[in-house]
Amino acid sequence: MKFDFNEKTAIVTGAASGIGAAIAHDLARFGAKVVLADMDEAGMSKVADEIGAAGGIALTQKTDTSVAADVEGLVAFAAAQTGALHLLVNNAGIGGPANLVGEYPLDGWQQVIDVNLTGVFHGLRYGIPEMVKAGGGRS
């Protein structure tokens, strides 16, 4: 299968390490300009440097996906810096505390829901209109 993301911009959330970093590397390798989003600025900088050293383009934006304004700002940043948004990888996620359900802290539950569920909604809510402007996405 041939992937060609030349002239495309992709946002990857949770891009400072793990699966998100691997996705960002692959998208850049296939030609995408990648906007890395994460709370871990040092991790994002490392990934961006690696992508740059391999000949790719990577920008970083500290983002808490559970905060709508952060994600709205991320999408605006990506579009302003690169001209358009074509792909959004909603990868950010957390595991939360390792407790039995009957002992699970309510604030821990809410944090997991805010990042893993609401964060994905925020990405879609603000990302889809920009992807539609670029000729893709669906609303």
From TrEMBL:
Domain of life according to the entry: Bacteria
InterPro entries, per database record: NAD(P)-bd_dom_sf, SDR_fam
Keyword list, A-Z: Oxidoreductase
Pfam family, one: adh_short
GO molecular function: oxidoreductase activity
Similarity comment text for this entry: Belongs to the short-chain dehydrogenases/reductases (SDR) family.
Name of the molecule in the record: SDR family NAD(P)-dependent oxidoreductase
